[in-house]
Design goal:
Layout lengths: L6 E15 L2 H9 L7 E15 L3 E5 L6 H8 L7 E6 L3 E4 L12 H11 L4 H15 L14 H13 L5 E5 L7 H17 L2 E5 L3 H7 L2 E6 L2 E6 L1 H11 L7 H24 L16 E2 L5 E9 L14 E10 L3 E11 L5 E7 L6 E3 L4 E9 L6 E12 L2 E15 L14 E9 L5
Parallel strand pairs: 3-7, 3-8, 5-6, 6-7
Antiparallel strand pairs: 1-2, 1-4, 8-9, 10-18, 11-12, 12-16, 13-14, 13-15, 13-17, 16-19, 17-18
Helix pairs in contact: 3-4, 4-5, 7-8
Bound molecules: adenosine-5'-triphosphate.
The site of adenosine-5'-triphosphate has 11 residues, from strand 2 and helix 2.
Length: 442
């Protein structure tokens, strides 16, 4: 399939204008006027916006209050009609727009779920399953039988979110809904959004939380005063946005120039890097000074290192490229439930990213005759100059998850990061592998 055929949202020269009246009286005067005299002024909420979204992308939209973020989402969700321009959307859309919109305030949460099933044509056989999932996810307890009008804003967000995601959409549109609700519910929502991303759902996401845009999205679009400013890597777009949020003279042309100046420079450096054959190299003088190897109880981690994709051991990384953290583990005896982890910290010891395999609640049964090679793929998108890599192997002992061995800061890399902003964590692990290898003395 070529890239063009994967477009699921196509926004073409969309503008949206509202007529604003100084008072309701002016509106009445205009409607009664025989002279065609106008009593309103035109306010452009969106001004000639165009972009395409590809299947499976997670796109964040950022900008100051009133810049048009919600309006563009509403137009894509077909809740608001544009004044001009056209829009094509492929697939089943589920949208969480204004808080509580789409919920019948007089009905209970449960009755709203049934209503939602009916409106969305959920098959009879699937209805009970949807109800169960939504009730469980929203975790409203006895409030599920209360009318929605008695809900707090956090409760409304829980129900709206649970409905939107359990409907199995092709395109999920989320407008700031996650800013309400408590931390544990937000965490649950983010985890669910991650799961939908993995399934290939296309996601449009409006948020004032820069860290959420960076950690969730593959792409960010910045709007200002209804106009398009930038479209690019979340870290870069958010970085410039936060740098210029207080700039009263901000105009699109100025921002575009700045972006080009900054990032064409970065691009050139990347291209230069590509001309150098190796994606990074090994500097033998670069060693961690903070390594701590904990006492091992039945397992030993060794050969913790980073390789590039051609298999060379490296510790000077190129920005934006993919690498493998790997280590080997040998066990002294049979271990029923083991899992392997890695963590990346910055110079100050702050955790930047971590990964565990097997994922979630699974464990691996260990054969002591075998050694294991653990590999974690990651992308070098860190915005810190050095990264320190730790490794751990854990197991369940007496119902407790304990470390069988743990090496803190066992390997260090320079990231080639060039400071253009300070927007926090941006590295994402992609996947991990566990391989069986022959024991030397076997
Ligand atoms: N129904 C309406 N009538 C008149 N003006 C409107 C209407 N809806 C939105 N606007 C105006 O359009 C502009 C864009 O609004 P929109 O809600 O899209 O902004 P936003 O970026 O989502 O803001 P926020 O971050 O505060 O949610 C604003 O100036 C707003 O006042």
């Amino acid at each position: 399939m070529n890239r063009e055929s994967e477009v699921v949202i196509s926004v073409n020269n969309i503008s949206k204008s509202y007529q604003l009246y100084a008072s309701p009286y002016d509106r009445l005067k205009e409607s009664l006027s025989l002279s065609n005299k106008k009593y309103h002024r035109i306010h452009k909420a969106l001004d000639d916006i165009s972009f395409k979204v590809y299947k499976g992308q997670t796109v964040g939209i950022i900008g100051k209050n009133g810049c048009g973020k919600s309006t563009i989402l509403k137009i894509i969700a077909k809740v608001v009609r544009p004044s001009s321009g056209s829009i094509q959307v492929k697939g089943r859309v589920s949208a969480i727009l204004e808080l509580g919109a789409g919920l019948n305030q007089e009905l209970s949460g449960l009755k709203n779920i049934h209503l939602f099933n009916t409106i969305n044509g959920i098959k009879k056989a699937d209805k009970d399953d949807v109800v169960k999932k939504v009730v469980e996810f929203s975790d409203l307890g006895k409030y599920i039988d209360q009318p929605v009008k008695s809900y707090s804003s956090g409760m409304k967000a829980r129900l709206a979110f649970a409905l939107a995601i359990n409907f199995d959409p092709d395109i999920l549109i989320v407008d700031e809904a996650l800013s309400v609700g408590d931390i544990s519910f937000r965490r649950k929502c983010f985890a669910k959004i991650e799961a939908l991303k993995q399934k290939g759902t296309t996601i449009l996401f409006v948020s004032h939380s820069e860290s959420s845009i960076i950690s969730l999205c593959d792409r960010a679009i910045w709007l200002s005063n209804g106009q398009y400013v930038l479209d690019g890597q979340p870290k870069e777009v958010v970085g410039l946005y936060s740098k210029h949020i207080n700039d009263k003279d901000l105009c699109c042309e100025k921002m575009n120039k700045l972006y080009k100046a900054l990032f064409s420079n970065v691009k050139d450096q990347k291209n230069e890097a590509l001309n150098v054959k190796a994606p990074g190299y090994y500097d033998k003088k670069l060693k961690p000074k903070s390594t701590i190897s904990y006492q091992n109880i039945g397992a030993e981690i060794y050969d913790l290192q980073v390789r590039d994709h051609s298999g060379r051991v490296v510790n000077i990384l190129k920005s934006g490229l993919g690498y493998l953290i790997e280590y080997k583990v040998k066990f002294e005896g049979h271990v029923e439930k083991a899992r392997f982890a890695t963590q990346i910290r910055d110079e100050k010891g702050h955790s930047l990213a971590g990964y565990v395999t097997p994922a979630t609640t699974e464990f691996l049964e260990i054969d002591p005759k075998i050694e294991y090679l653990i590999q974690f793929e990651f992308e070098n998108l860190f915005n810190t100059e050095m990264i320190f890599i730790s490794a751990g192997v854990r197991s369940i002992v007496d119902d407790q998850l304990v470390f069988l061995h743990r090496v803190l800061d066992g390997y260090v890399c320079k990231t080639s990061y060039q400071s253009v902003n300070n927007t926090g964590l941006t590295s994402l692990f992609k996947k991990a592998n566990i391989k069986e290898i022959q024991k030397d003395n076997a």
